[in-house]
Structures are given as C-alpha cells and as structure tokens.
Design a protein that fits this description.
Elements lengths: L4 H5 L9 H12 L8 H11 L2 H11 L7 E3 L4 E3 L1
Antiparallel strand pairs: 1-2
Amino acid sequence: MAPDRTQLQNMSKREHESFKEYAQHWRDLAAQVAPPMVEREMVTMIVNTLPVFYYEKLVGYTCPLASRTWYSPEKGSRWV
C-alpha cells in the first residue's frame, strides 16, 4: 500500500539512522505518493520532519544565499 502525505509528515529520523539513509528512505516513499508530489512540496515536507539540529544546520547553510529570492509557501510571498 502506497504511503500518503500524512504518513510522510509523521516520519522522523531514527537515532541509529544516518541522515543520508533517512533522506533516501523518505524520498523512496515520497515517490510512491499519489498524486505525485512536486519538488518544492517534498523539500518543505522533509525539512519539517527533521530534528532541530538538522534544521539549524540547513538554515545556517542557506544564510550565505540570503541575497537570492526565497519563497515561503506558508506566507505565499517572495523575499529578495
């Protein structure tokens, strides 16, 4: 049985699982969701499932890109 969006949102990284393993497993399941998810939806959803540690690393990583346009689906707006 194919997973749905709610199941993906409720997933979490296990302690013994590397980030790479978790991301690959999550992506494999996301590919089975119907109707198919667009890339932006997948990125937003997987980031929301990550522990704070990984989220902070991602935000810290994107800070140098602050001059680029950023889209927030929650706010429905763009910042430059």
